[in-house]
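Forwarding the complex inputs:
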Amino acid sequence: MSTTPPDLETEEPLIQGPYAGVKFGRGDKAFSTVALASGVTILVTLAAVFVFLFIKGLPGFTADPEIFKPSSDSFWGYVGRLLFGTTFAAIIALLIAVPFSFALALFISHYAPRRIATPVAYVIDLLAAVPSVVFGLWGARTLAVSSQPVQRWFDHNLGWLPFFKGPASATGRTILIAGVVLAIMCIPIITAICREVFSQTPRLNEEAALALGATRWEMVRYAVFPHSRSGMVAAVMLGLGRALGETMAVSMVMSSTPIITLNMISSTNSATIASNIAANYKAEDNRIQTVLLATGLVLFLFTFLVNFVARYVAGRGERGQR
Amino acid sequence: MTTFDTIESERLYSGRLPAYAPYLVLLIAFAASGLLALLLGWGIVPFVIVGGLIAVVGMPAWSAVVENRRAATDRLVTSVIWAAFAVTLVPLVWLIWVVISKGVPAIDLSFLTHDMVQRLDPATGKLVAGGGLEHALIGTLLVTLGAVVISVPIGLFTAIYLVEYGKRNRIAKVVTFLVDVMTGIPSIVAGLFGLALFTLIFGVGTRMGIMGSIALSLLMIPTVVRSGEEMMRLVPDDLREASYALGVPKWRTIVKVVIPTALGGIVTGIMLAISRVIGETAPLLVAVGAAEAVNSNLFSGRMMTLPVFIMTQYSTATPQGYARAWGGALILIVIVMVLNLAARIISKIFAPKTGR
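Prediction (whole assembly, two chains):
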């Protein structure tokens, strides 16, 4: 009994049964088109964010200088002050968050026993899930009030530093507290990425270090850190992106005006772009709305840049390993 | 190198602290701090801080005496890391404690079943606010549902494109990169986008629930894409190839083989994405605004949402306002935690069997 190969010349369909006569190409074509369209939608959306903010915000760049008074006399002066506040709050946040995040990530990846590390990682993720408005409420109603003695102490004992020039705010709701709240919100992000990066250190490198007589810290310093450097930088940049764009925690904790001041504990604080939008979005004046959209565009570009650099650094690190 | 090091290396091994040393140091440190606290009348905060400091300094000091300098450094870092862990727990525990202790008294049945519209109280003949967040609960539910309806199909199909069709071509690379960048969009910018888009089409002053949904989906899509992509990549190629070998077309393979296999992870990702956006305040504040009455139409007028409710009640700066804000905060945290927990349980149940 010899099997004959199917005759390709005839138009006889190869497939029998329920699928006979079904044109496979069509369903596939439709499906892959929909999938591609979704991907393109994302491209278009991101472009649209830029375009719409640009269209609506463009008049803001050349708005009447009158509306920027008394804090400033031109758009760029206004945005400059807001950018200063945004960066200042983010720097305070990162100065606090980065050491804690690195320590926590190391704790989870290398120091804690496994049965502690898993729940700790879960708890840190929970910290990330707490909504920002709750952080804002807690920061303004609880942390600010409890921190008053500390801020007064800074005023009395470190008043010679420009950062603590005072007079200490009576409510405690200052950019320092906003920075602390931002730090608490950044810690889970930075920790989560660093934890991943640290635990990807090749096991052999670590064991080689230990076998050479290194203590655990020396192993971390000479095997884990060099391996994770780019990942750590990227994590910090992503934390920075979060701190720059956070709105509610800042606007609820401190009342602020667009000024430049290094004083972290007084009752006049530098506004951030985001908190300034949240504070003024109800303004009746249409010109102010336009200016706010323009500052929003500046914030978008600024955070875009930060994220771009972060991804680039992370990507370069990955290529370096191959 | 100092002579000290040479002596160390000649001795082959130096002294070691016993395994219980850290516990002993902790005990002594807090006993000493407790004694000081009793003598000087400190509160609990200085007691804990001083106790922790003594432990962090004492452990390496003891190690430096008995062991060597390198071991002491190691002990120092270990103590600092444990201390950092303890310090990070403080805000979390504090926050949850405050929200529960202040939120529970504010919540009762009327809090959940009234809105904030002022009505004539028949007993006193005065206008009183309803004093509840029913309108905010309904608003949050609808706006988030809208965001889910928009972002889940787009996110999932993008993930399918990236995993099944893109195969690292240029479009796939650009989309992956932009999804990464999208993760970092500040939430208020998303809100401004919703505002700019709709005011351009419908005129200045337009406020609709759907504007909030669009803003939120901008924040939600990247999470859905990333988790969907990761989960579909976990599906073994053997399954796909077995399906192709049976003559099943590619799209049916995706629908009938890939997605069911990855379903647990995909659902988990979607729920985590929801829990991320359900607490977003800034975009809703800007794009949807605030309202006092129930509005169950996504396509007309302002709507109240839970985070904005907390925000507006907080800014009334009255005792009742603060109480309502804490009540709302507790409800919001419970919703977010339940979503998180459910997501984790689902991912545990449906975790793909990796064969290990």
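Chain B has 14 helices and two strands.
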